Amino acid sequence: xxxxxxxxxxxxxxxxxxxxxxxxGRRNAANLLIFVFLATLVxxxxxxxxxxxxxxxxxxxxxxxxxxxxAFTFFLIIEVIGLVFALAQSVAGAAGKQFEIFSLIxxxxxxxxxxYFGEPIVWEEIREPVLHMLADxxxxxxxxxxxxxxxxxxxxxxxxxxxxxxxRFVTAKKAIALLLLAVFVFIGLNDLWRYATGQPVYPFFKxxxxxxxxxxxxxxxxxxxxxxxxxxxxxxxxxALATVTLRIALAAPVYINVLLGIAASAFILGLTxxxxxxxxxxxxEAEAEAEAVPTLPEAVRxxxxx
Length: 306
What we know:
mainly alpha
């Protein structure tokens, strides 16, 4: 029974991933972003000209810059789906993807400041939003650089030398990824329903990062089934802590959110270098100890008189 469930999980995940990562899937995602951007520009202009009916004009902004923010929001949603599929490939890769998305969220926040710009632009009215833009954009750039070094430092060593156990661990991560994808779809549909019915909408990305915290902790616990090595457990737990920091950063005010994001990026970079250095030493020492223990026949032969 369990074997059938695992095989079904593999088939479903691999099928969805193949479609999502295919050339046609990327083109469709790009076409959606282009459509959202252009359609928003048209709808905003229709409202500015008074050509939208009142029941549609209410939630539509009056600034054309809102099209940039909305297009970035859809782009982030696409990146979140990519994070779900990256989770099964590599725990470290999925952690890096979380920081990629956070840096893009900072860029989106910078673009959202454009919504406060009137047309024509008056400097006295935009002085504070410009400072916010510089902070968010600068923080995103620093995180971009740190994550670049983070990816360069990855060695992608398996947590176990047993191929069968490694396959089971990957399948377990695929199951978690499918669960995350279902939660992602539920959150999105729930937000759409609440928006359509005039109810307060939950902050999508804050909610999703909260779910990521629990998924990261679950991966730490599942990894204990395949290895109890201190270095692996510490690294995976550190990734979960970094996700907690990002979730706090999403709720923090401007400037503080940037500092928290940079601190979390520096943390996982240092964690990776420490893991590469001391984790490898620990593995070598464990292998040396295992090889140094003689089997019973060898021990008997070594003690036998010549």
